[in-house]
Fold:
Amino acid sequence: MTTQEILVKAGQLVLSLSILVVLHELGHFIPAKLFGARVEKFYLFFDPWFSLFKKKKGDTEYGIGWLPLGGYVKISGMVDESMDREQLAKPPEPHEFRSKPAWQRLIIMIGGVTVNLLLGFLIYAMMLWHWGESYLPTQNVKYGVAVDSLAGSIGLKDGDMILSVNNKPVENFRAIPAEILLREASSIQVSRDGQHLDIPIPDGFKREMIKEKGTLLNIRLPFLVDSVVKASEADKAGFRKGDQVLTLNGQPAYYLHEFRKAMIANKNKQVPVEILRDGDTIRLIANVPASATLGMFSVAPDKVFTFVTKEYGFLEAIPAGFSKCINTLVKYVQQLRLIFVSKEVKASESLGGFLSIGNLFPGEWDWMSFWEMTALLSIILAFMNILPIPALDGGHVLFLLYEIITGRKPSEKFLEYAQIVGMVLLFGLLLYANGLDIWRNIFHK
Structure:
């Protein structure tokens, strides 16, 4: 990965988290102000020891911290991560969180999660309205699949036409790996040379899928030259737009993945390349550099395959965005469930920290990908925050529901101890997840 790609990924991650954190905290800030609770601080990122920026306006100090692990609002009279024992030791004031009715405190606490869910829905709705939705139906993958070594290990072969997973057709080709994992599939049905075959999925395969983090199945795309970089090795060899590559040094290179394999096998060599141009077979001589690239690009998949594209009007995009938001949440919960119920999915191989999240963003700035990732992270943030764990919003909600149902408020000392336990758990998980990232990226390269 180049330095530029790293910086682009990091920039997208920081911008996305900044949007999510500010809006999440606004979800707490706005109802707190509406109900007359004093908000002492509103911070993007944490500020232990010092802040990068701060400005006092009214009763609230607004600022930016230096530790980009989240953000917070400090509401007077609330047991939170600030652990302000001095304030809590005093009699409650009318402007404090603890003086407000339980139903108001509940609305304040669920405000952040509510905003994150609404944000995910709105982003999806606006994306569908602006870009529409496009996907490649599995049945339209007319040249079959290109398999990696992992897929090949269970008997899948280049050119296989995927029919179904666990005898259930998968409409969107790109959804096949997720279907294998989330449905804990035991077989894949394919068509090969006119025969229908059942490919069993052995124990341990899904674990390897997660470890590899590969695409597993790619479309088999003919290498039809779309453009040639000026003064590149391809240009010097005489390649032109529209050429269909056939072989490279006698090795099959009709499909893009075959061409890439042949290039790697012939690095630092001068090799013959057979191409088809205007119905004639032509032989070119190319110098394959150490980088195994010649400087030419294949046509995009949408020029070869029939994609299904659906356009949405503004009113159509609203329910479609809501549906996509719910489906994304359900799939995320299914993925999380695998960590606890699947024999193959291990937390040490599935969890990740900020490096893993950052790597989900593309290496080039792409607004469509950026907003899609931001919507996904917003939904994940909402779900994780509502978990009934002390120090998270869900922990506060759990205690407030107990108070509303029983009429008895947990003591502030109990809430304080619960907050400490929750913070230890969360920081432990944070260190563990990011430690796994460091281990994978430094010691397992």
Remarks:
- The radius of gyration is 27 Å.
- The first strand starts at residue 39 and ends at 57.
